[in-house]
Design brief:
The protein has 306 residues and is α/β, with parallel strands linked by helices. The chain is 46% helix and 12% strand. It has a nine-stranded mixed β-sheet with strand order 1-2-6-5-4-3-7-8-9, sandwiched between helices. It is globular, with a radius of gyration of 21 Å. The chain starts with 6 loop residues before the first helix and ends with a helix.
């Protein structure tokens, strides 16, 4: 079934996600909308019709959702549902695909990026490694993807911008928030020169669960993840584990393997490698990308008639 994905469809999706009829999770709602091809149709299935409003169009929850969608049209960001053409295609490859993202900045159709992540309490050495890796990625015409957190994330974003490259910040708050507050100027610069993405409602504050969810989406957005420094409870730990689940390559600096109990358990998994320097990390990324390109060439030729 092909349905034009217009503002009525977007409003129906918002109403479904905010009201969660029948106690459905966001993932279940997303799956059912994808199956039907229409959020409005799912709404009509799940929300009992009023005797005076057989269509359900007058439901207060749907009316409020329409108002929200209209307000976002004039906002300095875009509201992209998973059914929209400009929704980042790489996010559709994973089970944790968010049903929507808010995007401030420039969305590219085929954005080839690598995640550079690590501890908020980074050492000077870690900050230098993050900058060197990010500069190397820019030289390879790759986007630097990170989470706008203190420490490694901030160093990665700044290095990419200073090298006149593209960087994408996948944040753990709503798109209207600045977190941490001291990165407000950096966030504004990324919006101007790159892209800021959020999978949360625009005014959502940071929370205990928002950052692990953010890490899953960040992993999905990137072709690979480089973990510069990380502690036992670092978000980079979640990023590395989720990236392995996504089948994305993971580059671990040796200091992470030596200083944590979780990193050694990932060593030996497909696509995971350990490096000692920025040069080794970039070489590993080169090999991963060449392997992917070889697979693409093989698949392309396999589809051609002899």
């Amino acid at each position: 079934m092909h349905v034009a994905w217009d503002d009525e469809e977007r409003a129906a999706l918002v109403a479904l996600l905010q009201s969660r009829p029948d106690g459905l999770s966001w993932e279940q709602i997303t799956d059912r909308v994808a199956e039907l091809g229409s959020a409005r149709e799912l709404w009509s299935h799940l929300v009992p019709a009023d005797l005076l409003d057989q269509t359900g169009d007058g439901d207060p929850r749907l009316i409020e959702a329409r108002a929200q969608v209209r307000s976002w049209q004039d906002a300095p960001f875009a509201f992209l549902t998973f059914m929209n053409d400009f929704y980042p295609a790489q996010l559709r490859d994973v089970q944790q695909m968010p049903p929507f993202v808010f995007a401030a900045g420039r969305v590219l159709e085929d954005d080839r990026g690598v995640c550079v992540v690590g501890s908020r309490r980074a050492t000077d050495h870690g900050l230098n490694m993050a900058a060197e890796v990010s500069q190397g990625l820019v030289e390879r015409s790759l986007t630097v993807v990170s989470g706008l957190a203190r420490g490694i994330d901030g160093a990665a974003h700044r290095a990419a911008l200073d090298a006149h490259g593209r960087t994408v910040a996948v944040i753990g708050t709503g798109i209207e928030r600045n977190y941490p507050p001291e990165h407000a100027e950096l966030q504004a610069r990324i919006t101007s020169e790159g892209l800021v993405l959020s999978q949360f409602w625009p005014s959502s504050p940071p929370g205990k669960q928002t950052f692990p969810l953010r890490n899953a989406v960040m992993s999905a957005y990137g072709l690979a993840s480089v973990v510069i420094e990380a502690g036992e409870t670092s978000g980079a730990r979640i990023q590395a584990r989720v990236a392995v689940e996504h089948g994305r390559p993971v580059v671990l600096f040796k200091s992470v393997v030596e200083s944590t109990s979780w990193a050694p358990s990932l060593v030996g998994a497909p696509g995971v490698c350990v490096v000692r320097s920025a040069d080794e990390a970039l070489t590993a990324i080169d090999k991963f990308l060449e392997a992917d390109a070889e697979i693409d060439r093989w698949l392309s030729s396999a589809g051609e008639p002899w």
